[in-house]
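Example record used in the benchmark description.
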Amino acid sequence: VWLRDLLAEYPDIRLIAAAPLTGFADLVELGFAWASLVPWQTGQIRQFAAQWGKTLYLSQPPRQRTYWRPGQTALETQLRFWQHALNQADDAKNGRPFRLCDVMTAALTHFLPGGEQDWAIQAYWARLAYTLLAEGKLALTSDEAAMLAMDTAVADKTLATQLKQSVPGTPLFAVWPNGDISFRSSVWRDFLAANHMATNNLRDEAAAQVGQPGWVGVLRFLVAQVGGAELADRSLKTKELSPARDILFQVADWL
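Model output (structure tokens):
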């Protein structure tokens, strides 16, 4: 609404808006032209592999066909490369998972400290991500994060302290000078928020967000974890359906 009002009041200004790969129909209706970053070319991929091979002291980088395929995003390429470089490929058939959700699940282990509290830390990070989206915030204050840590730890003060200490220095997060916490990447935020919804069986909450642009990535990761049949059925029964709207395309993408 605010963007529509801004354009109505200042029709001659030029704006650039960042949006996910799907769910940007509202921006198109406002007159925005869609553009996307071109996927890496073969030469760029070879340069990427060579540079990381030196950084990781690899005698031989992974073969290109094991971590790259035409049209995939730069993020997918990086995650698959690191997965193979660190010997974490878990696809029994061909050495790599095909779904981004699977790749990120495997990559997440490299951000966790590797102790007996990893399950609680992952649950805490997922709760931070979900809270940011559910409350429409870009960042949480240190007090809000501390409260979520205590809730996740079920009032165990020692564990709550460990959870709070897991955020600073982790590449997934940005800690601002005022102590606020945010995610560096909306992709990781959406992935972890979906983890929270899947773990806590938030079906009604998921159904309520179908068609909301800010939740497109979350629901896609959620469907990858729990399946899309039930959510698709509820969406098609309760939402306004029109070929011009994104809901049909979103449901088709899940199925």
